Amino acid sequence: MQSAGFDYSSGSFWSAFGTGGFADEPPLLEELGINFEHIKTKSLAVLNPFRIVPDTIMDDADLAGPLLFMLLFGVFLMLSGKVHFGYIYGVGLLGVVSIFLILNLMSGNGIDWSRTASVLGYCLLPMVMLSGFSVVLPLGGFVGLVLTVVSILWCSFSSSGMFTSVLHMSEQRFLVAYPVGLFYASFALMTVF
Length: 193
Prior knowledge:
By secondary structure, the chain is mainly alpha-helical. It has helices spanning 28-32, 36-47, 64-79, 85-106, 113-122, 125-136, 142-167, 173-192; strands spanning 2-3, 6-7. It has two domains: 1-32, no CATH class; 35-192, no CATH class. 64% of the residues lie in helices and 2% in strands. Pfam families: Yip1. This is Protein YIP.
């Protein structure tokens, strides 16, 4: 198909504006670095924290899953009457920076900030489920207290397991779990109150 000297079917400049695209162009999700298989694998590792976590699980530090979980967390809080999107991202950023510094002080080989954000974001999944429960039932009573404590422990156990597996710090799991537990407790406070 030719019009006014332009060839729309080949890889010309104008084919980028059509629906055909370039012939050797990768799909959009692949170009953005979003891999749903990795998101599923890491989410299942969080949902089953008693399984041995391989140290290669965080070889790619994607942030698509954590951003999705933080968005879902904020949407569930909004549905329960609490609009805390700014607090969520602020506490998340401050927590990533502080836990990044703590882990690099504790371990010999260190970790980069994107892997820290990826682990903390993926392990937010139980807190997202808690915020989903807060839409249908109030968390101010005994059942809410139990669910909140369980979700904090679940998030802390999963993330400390991933951090100690990636950083080869098997003897320091409780030292890692304490600041991470405080991080997730701040998200639990947003959910309950």
